[in-house]
Write a structure and sequence with these properties.
- It is built from 1 helix and 5 strands, in the order ββαβββ.
- The protein has 89 residues and is mainly beta.
- It has one domain.
- The strands form 2 sheets. A 3-stranded antiparallel β-sheet has the order 2-1-3.
- Strand 4 and strand 5 form a beta hairpin.
- The two termini are 22 Å apart.
- 15% of the residues are buried.
- Bound molecules: zinc ion.
- Zinc ion binds next to helix 1.
């Protein structure tokens, strides 16, 4: 993962974290302080848990790669363009 996809957290008028980037319709993932990724749904429902885990700190778009699972609900979050190693040229 590169750092140039990352942006400060942005909350919309309802105080929610965006799930979809307003340009391009890309899915936004949220990065936690401990380096885990969570989906937007989990980021929005986040409360400091019993382990004292802080809320997500950064938003990013996963452009390319094998995707990740949400560290919270375990939903698979594919990258936008897939894994270049598995796409036929
Ligand atoms: Zn999730």
């Amino acid at each position: 993962m590169t750092t140039d996809n990352q942006a400060p957290l942005h909350r919309n008028a309802e105080g929610k974290l965006d799930a979809i980037a307003f340009t391009g319709g890309y899915s936004i993932r949220y990065l936690c302080e401990e380096g885990e990724t969570v989906c937007a749904e989990c980021a929005n429902e986040w409360t400091v848990d019993e382990y004292g885990t802080p809320e997500p700190i950064e938003a990013y778009i996963d452009w390319e790669g094998s995707g990740v699972h949400c560290a919270h609900c375990n939903k698979f979050l594919p990258s936008e363009y897939g894994d270049p190693d598995t796409i036929e040229a």
